Amino acid sequence: MRILLVEDQQSLGTWLCRALDNAGILVDWVDNARSALASIGRGTHDVIVLDLGLPDQDGQELLKVLRDQDANTPVLVLTARDFLAEKVRAFHSGADDFLGKPFDLEELDVRLHALLRRARGAEAARLTCGPLSYDLGIQRFAISGDALNLTPRESAVLRVLLQHAGEPMSKQQILERVVSDEKDIHPEAVEVIVHRLRKRLDGARVRITTIRGLGYALEAA
Length: 221
Description:
42% of the residues lie in helices and 22% in strands. The protein is of the alpha/beta class.
């Protein structure tokens, strides 16, 4: 999962980036509304976490503008303004969830995954494609119930493909969701990881297909 964090408090932003990265969630962090709108326009995030107290624009107003640009990406409002009127206003403006500060990191993690599942139309705490499943709670892949042991990079790429099962994902789109700095890995390295994943999935009635000109798609065989 890759999220956009819109938070102007430097200490909190730094801590959240580090903590969520350790939890397997990639974070793009901006500290003002202008940068947030530029990032949202690229459409590479699974969830947006929005603080309301921004220096250049009220977060509630930014939320309305955001919804005009992007009606689908889930938005979790994260703010110290934890009172009913502010919550009601946020939900009317297009928020999908609301979490007051201070908060527990584990609760934020659970809420982020719940928003992602809801956005993908999944009801259970698992992502599935044929016999392949990913348990969001324990962050583990399995094939027909048997654990599938993967390297961190293999797991990250397969998780992206599973989250977008049946949908072609280009190498660039995959990279944007598995590394925080695209300089860390070359797009061609995705080919190597996909090749290894195909070997691991061989005979499992689920496959990674190449769609010419579009990218890779995970499909039940």
